[in-house]
Amino acid sequence: RRGKMAKSTQLIDNEVFRAYATYTAIVLLKMMLMSLVTAYFRITRKAFANPEDTASFGKGESAKKYLRTDPDVERVRRGHLNDLENIVPFAGIGLLYALSGPELSTALLHFRIFAGARILHTLAYLIPLPQPGRGLSWAVGYSVTFSMAYRVLKTVLLL
């Protein structure tokens, strides 16, 4: 069945699609957790972007001091933004890749490496770990998405 597009009625029985669904769910949940981490840092650092978010800490002029940026909050936000820039393309390209009929072992390698790279990238951002750790983990994940895109194009366009 290699190289044949999967029928939508067979997706749940398709091991590659199930692997895709599993690892995509993992990285999407990780990305969603970054929202909670951002909220945690905002609350513990008392650094808010919107006036209504400062209401629990005072009124009027006393609350304005909480409308500020904080380096820790901004670091978490940049990590979350990086997730959005990388996990969303992975989800779309990964779906096309899963439907293009790859071997299960090759697909699992792509999905696992991407998920691991994104988790390492987040840890490197939050701890923070010295470079080139974060840069390498980003590059590995990006390369995986590029590899899947190339394989989709090769299958579909017969490159």
Automatic annotation (TrEMBL):
Record has DNA-binding as a keyword: no
GO CC annotations, alphabetized: endoplasmic reticulum membrane; mitochondrial outer membrane
UniProt feature coiled coil, ranges: none
Catalyzed reactions per annotation: RX + glutathione = an S-substituted glutathione + a halide anion + H(+)
EC number: 2.5.1.18
Single GO MF annotation: glutathione transferase activity
Role according to the record: Conjugation of reduced glutathione to a wide number of exogenous and endogenous hydrophobic electrophiles.
Subunit details: Homotrimer; The trimer binds only one molecule of glutathione.
Protein family according to the UniProt entry: Belongs to the MAPEG family.
Name of the featured protein: Microsomal glutathione S-transferase 1
Organism of this sequence: Atrichornis clamosus
Gene it is expressed from: Mgst1
